[in-house]
Structures are given as C-alpha cells and as structure tokens.
Amino acid sequence: MQWFAKAPSNIALIKYMGKKDSLTNVPNNPSLSYTLNHLVSSVRLETYDGEIDCWKPLSGTFNLSPAAQMRYLKHLAYLKAHYQYSGAFIVYSDNNFPHGNGLASSASSFAALTQCAVLALSELTNTPMISIEEQANLARQGSGSACRSLFSPWAYWDENGVKSIDIDYHSFIHQVVMISSAEKEVSSSEAHKRIHTSHLYAARAEQATNHLNALLTAFKTKDWFRAYQICWQEFNDMHQLFATSTPPFAYITDKSRQLLQRIQTDWENNGDGPLVTMDAGPNIHLLYRMDQEAMANQIKRDLLISSYHVV
Ligand code: PMV
Q: In the predicted model, is pLDDT for residue 124 greater than 70?
C-alpha cells in the first residue's frame, strides 16, 4: 500500500526563535509566516515487510545526509507511536527546489511527512482522520516551523497553537538571493538552545510580540514602508541574539551585508522596495507586492548581472 502528500515551505516575518519546551517545541514567542506555495516537498510512504523504516530518494538526484535521514525517520517513529502502529515503511521524499543550496527545507519536508503519515496511519489503524490543527501539532514535533506550513497564505503560531490568519496581502512575489549553499555550522535546533545564553533573550518574547502587532497594523493600514522597517528590525534582532550568545555565532556574511546595504540604498532612493528577511542562514528573502512585478524582475536582472544566484 502507498500514500502520497505534498507540503509547502514558509518564511517567517516574525521569527520563532527560542522554545518554552524543547521536548514538544512550544515556542517562546509568537511567529507569523507567509507560505511559499512554490517551494514544495513531496513524500510517498510504502508499507513493506522489513523490520525497520528506511528512507529513499523520490527522484534520482535528491539526497539526504545520514543525519537528516535519521531525524526524518525519528519523526516517523513518533507518528507511528502516536497511532500505536508498528509496521515498517519505506519513506520516499524530495523537494521541488534545488537541494543543498542553503534553502531551509525542514518546514516543508516535516509537514509533508506528517501529512502523508497521518493519511497512512489513519487508514492502517482504522482511525478517523484528524483536523489540520491536530496535524500541525504533530508536524511541530518534527520541526517547529513545519506546523505553519499547513496553513496558507498566512500562519500565526504561538504557545497555544497554530492557525490561519487573515491579512489583506494574499500573494507576494518571492525571491531568495543565494549568498551561500554551504551546510550550516550551527543548526537551527542548536541556535534555539544557544540563544538562551544571550542577555537579549529575556526581552525577546515581548519584542517579537510588539513587532507582530506593529506589522499587523502596518498591513492593515497598507503602510508598506513601515512593514519593511519592522521586518528588517525583526530579522536583525534575531541575528543579534546569535551574535550575543555564548559562544557567539553568525549566519550573516560580508556578502549578505553588502546586498542588504544595496537593498536599503535602493529603498532610500526609490521610496519603495521589497520586504526583506533572513532566516537562520546567510540567504536573503525578498517579498514584493503583486503590483511591484516590474521592480522584482528588474532587481532580479540586476542581481544576476552582479553574479548573484536568485531562486
Ligand atoms: O523549525 P526550526 O526548529 O528549524 O526553527 C526555524 C526557525 C527559523 O527558521 C530561524 C525562524 C522561523 O520562524 O521559521
């Protein structure tokens, strides 16, 4: 028997960074993400006669490191235990975005695995299908940010759960400027732990909540410049937590800084531009309103000429 599911990635404008409970991934602060429906992970699950679960690529070119495979199978084991099912599966997975290019894929891959396993395990154990909210809670166990990938176009997540949230901007043009495709030296799981040592951490939850409220107001009043300022402040605050941890760590590189400077200057010169954000990595996400398509194309052309890789 086999089952198939797909799930998109998401980019947080208000970042989840820091956990109240690291066993169940309860976030320390609220986060808000925009769902990236064009960046998708796919999973196929097949029952088989073996003793243990194993992972295989869904397409020939895709690969997961042994450590990533183990983390993926551990989440499947968690889901099987939840449904009290002990049979074995072969997990096939891949992403539709180039692998190994530094684009975070844990949100989409853990969301897709959870949705596929819920389909399979409900059928195999004759259990009624659970709600999307319950599926999101299960996905959260694999990777916190994965729970937001089950809602579109916007997801709001706090310690009480995750839900869809209505924001007047339903669709953006999204670009990621690739600064580096190298494997991260500090994983986001490690980052969540280490930032507890920063003197800025005590104020982080309040600061993120203030940013969230200010961003929702900026979206409501269509104050795009204010939205840009808040997003900018928010990712910088997260990266400041990294810089002030013990030991400190950084994802922003000189090349990231140069590009950020250039986008800032463009904004100053034109009085308009994209929202800018960065995750726990060196790459830069740009979000344009749909009426900024000509600008998005122009910036993409300029960046390609300057030898940046834009996804
Ligand atoms: O889902 P995790 O544990 O990999 O955490 C990711 C956190 C960030 O991507 C840095 C921010 C976010 O809210 O997505």
A: yes
